[in-house]
Design brief:
alpha/beta, eight-stranded mixed sheet, membrane, transmembrane helix, glycoprotein, transmembrane, G protein-coupled receptor activity
Length: about 750
């Protein structure tokens, strides 16, 4: 249109934000040679005043409010300190920041963390959304999208924003947009029947007329936002109704006002343009039902009224010697002596700021449901009367979250590519918990002696595991141990009672009785392995085991040597039996046992066993064990017992061809083979068994060895003594040997 026209002067009554897209296109198409006339809305704006724009818009002329110097204002501005003037809303915010702060408080109060935002494509919208984003970024609020709209946008751009709203999962949308820019989008939302969204409005449209219609209520009813408080100024009504251009001839304001109200200008007006301006005849009267004359619901006018009166009261207090709080000043000041800092001090003592929240309702009404204002301590108060709010989504407060709050026992896990408000809830790993809802990105690791419960919301004490007397395994092992000790004791009683019989004498009664005593100790030894480990039980179990078994094998070794020497004594010229009498037999037993005693004493003095807690073998259990203290000492004890057993086995093997009735060597050979097999299999089983089963394996090895010695060596003799006494004779013992000799 501009290019086709032959005009050389164009008047643009447009806001800078609305004009800027056109200016870019004019510059792009290299349209020059036009004299532009600007309104105050853009004549001195920054974006048109760039070197690039000068080619097409240089020389633009327009009207602005004249610049005037305020001599004493600069020191006031330089002296502003928000930390000293905590109650001054002026210091910490200008208007858009205050609204953004109020909206941030509102969003936080209702727990809305996933919202959409709309901004107008001008400074008002951009600055408002920027300020709002800055306020909520520390509150965990995420903005899903920011749509940009403007009243001059083509419908395609409006439809893009509507589609963005439809595709998003948000249920709460903030629109920081003037009413005129928002209205095209509102019409499209209504047309496409988009409902179920809670709208948050900036003060620019929350109480505007066009959105406040029954038709719009379907999609925009329940909208909530902030506006300046409505107040009545009843004394202003007569003042407005008394305005008369014929009494105030030199007031251009009155002339313009009269022209707006009645449609003509008084003849005396200085701005009358012949043939253009309609001249009043003098009998015209304004329509006093016009909204302009309604002084019962004033917003911005009342704020100006408050500001003027606040300054007036501050000046009054300075001039008339009144201090803040009603106190009387010591020195009165002349008007010429008043400094801006003194006025500001008094002004802060009486200044206040507040705003109301007003949602839409059916009729449509705008109902106050709370207020937002700075408090005396420099913070802000948001008061909301929830019972007065009628939500667009029904009776319940709308929910605006990308992801539901994680329940107890789970943690938040970020979803790649989405804001922090969008997350998955991952169950805590075993051994960790989450005992708060929706706050943890990492679960809390339970202390080492605790474990997580099934719900993963609390730590519970781990089960302490040891081989107990009360559990089935412990009861069975105790029963076997006592049974073996009782059988061995019974055998000992039998041997003592029949100690004068040939079969007892033939088997070296002293060593047999000592062997039976040592077997009783071997059977009782496992009782020290059962129960909760203590310092004393730990030292006792291993040393008792080592010494009693060394004594037991030493006795077997002594008996084996007796058998060998007894057989060798039957050979001509051999007096070995005379050299290996009872004293020598006891000496062998004592010396072999003494070596084990020395090993155990060194073990207890250098690195004794001690009770220990194992946490690594089982996550849910604390395994109580008796640590050997020194593995070298423990395996030295086992190694020495094995050495005695091997020597005994070799000697018994060499004496295996002795006469049957006289010979114990075959029995001892069999017994030592069983003993060695048990302890060879014990070592890998001992190492690989977890927890209390390690102790059970050791007890099983002890009992197996003891029962093997008992049954292999003594049960055949007990059978003859008790069941076949006719064989318990010297003739029978020597019978087979005589046959061989013959």
């Amino acid at each position: 249109m501009i290019k086709k026209s032959n005009v050389k002067v164009i008047l643009a009554v447009v806001a800078e934000g609305d004009l800027y897209p056109l200016m870019l296109e004019v510059l792009k198409q290299n349209i020059t040679g036009i004299q532009w006339i600007a309104t105050v809305g853009w004549v001195t704006a920054d974006r048109p005043s760039t070197p690039e724009m000068f080619k097409s818009f240089g020389g633009t002329i327009g009207f602005v409010v004249p610049k005037k110097a305020i001599p004493k204002l600069e020191p006031v501005l330089r002296d502003i300190n928000p930390y000293q003037e905590l109650n001054s809303s002026f210091v910490s915010d200008f208007w858009e920041t205050m609204v953004a702060k109020a909206l941030a408080f509102l969003v936080k109060r209702f727990g809305w963390t996933w919202i959409g935002a709309l901004q107008s494509d001008n400074d008002y919208g951009r600055n408002g959304i920027t300020a709002f984003t800055k306020e909520v970024e520390t509150l965990g609020v995420c903005i899903a999208f920011v749509g940009t709209i403007l009243r001059t946008y083509p419908k395609s751009k409006i439809l893009e924003v509507v589609e963005m709203i439809k595709q998003s999962s948000v249920k709460v949308i903030l629109a920081f947009v003037p009413e005129g820019d928002l209205y095209p989008l509102m019409q499209e939302v209504l047309k496409q029947n988009i409902t179920g969204i809670q709208w948050i409005a900036s003060e620019a449209w929350v109480t505007a007329d066009r959105p406040s219609t029954p038709e719009m209520f379907k999609s925009f009813g329940g909208t909530i936002g902030f506006v300046v408080r409505k107040m009545a100024m009843l004394k202003l009504g007569p003042v407005l109704r008394d305005i008369n251009p014929y009494q105030e001839l030199n007031s251009s304001f009155v002339s313009d006002f009269w022209e707006t109200m009645v449609g003509c200008k008084p003849l005396s007006s200085v701005n009358v343009l012949p043939n253009i301006t309609k001249i009043c005849r003098g009998n015209e009267k304004p329509d006093y039902t016009n909204k302009f004359f309604d002084v019962t619901q004033l917003r911005d006018v009342y704020k100006v009224y408050q500001a003027v009166y606040a300054i007036a009261h501050a000046l009054h207090q300075v001039v008339f010697c009144e201090m803040p709080g009603g106190n009387v000043s010591r020195k009165c000041l002349n008007v010429s002596d008043i400094t801006p800092k003194q006025v500001r001090c008094f002004l802060l003592s009486i200044a206040s700021y507040s705003s109301d929240i007003r949602p839409s309702n059916w009729e449509v009404q705008h109902i106050p449901v709370g207020y937002f204002s700075p408090s005396a301590n420099g913070k802000y108060d948001l008061v909301i009367y929830k019972d007065k709010i009628i939500w667009n989504t029904g009776n319940l407060t709308p929910k605006a979250v990308c992801s539901e709050i994680c329940p107890l026992g789970t943690r938040k896990a970020r979803i790649k590519g989405l804001p922090v408000c969008c997350f998955d809830c991952i169950p805590c790993a075993d051994g960790s918990i989450s005992n708060t809802t929706g706050t943890l990105t990492d679960c809390i690791i339970c202390p080492i002696e605790y474990w997580s419960n099934e719900r993963k919301d609390s730590c519970i004490m781990k089960v302490t595991e040891f081989l107990s007397y009360t559990e089935t395994m412990g009861i069975v092992l105790v029963a076997l141990s006592l049974f073996g000790a009782c059988v061995t004791f019974s055998t000992l009683v039998v041997f003592i009672h029949f100690r004068e019989t040939p079969i007892v004498k033939a088997n070296n009664s002293d060593l047999s009785l000592l062997l039976l005593v040592s077997l009783i100790l071997c059977f009782l030894c496992p009782l020290t392995f059962i129960g909760e480990p203590t310092v004393w039980s730990g030292m006792l179990r291993h040393t008792t085991f080592g010494i009693t078994f060394a004594l037991c094998i030493s006795c077997v070794l002594g008996k084996t040597i007796v058998v060998v020497t007894a057989f060798r004594a039957t050979l001509p010229g051999n007096n070995m039996a005379a050299k290996f009498g009872p004293a020598q037999q006891r000496g062998i037993v004592c010396s072999c046992t003494a070596i084990q005693v020395v090993i155990c004493i060194l073990w207890l003095n250098i690195s004794p066993p001690f009770p220990n807690k194992l946490y690594e073998q089982s996550n849910k259990k604390i395994i109580l064990e008796c640590n050997t203290g020194s593995d070298a000492a423990f395996y030295s004890v086992l190694g020495y017992i094995s050495l005695l057993a091997v020597i005994c086995l070799v000697l018994a093997f060499l004496a295996r061809k002795l006469p049957d009735n006289f010979n114990e060597a075959k029995v001892i050979t069999l017994r030592m083979l069983i003993f060695c097999a048990v302890w060879i299999t014990f070592i890998p089983a001992y190492i690989s068994s977890p927890g209390k089963y390690t102790v059970a394996v050791e007890i099983f090895a002890i009992l197996s060895s003891a029962f093997g010695l008992l049954f292999c060596i003594f049960m055949p003799k007990c059978y003859i003594i008790l069941i076949k006494p006719e064989k318990n004779t010297k003739k029978h013992m020597m019978g087979k040997n005589t046959k061989h000799a013959g």
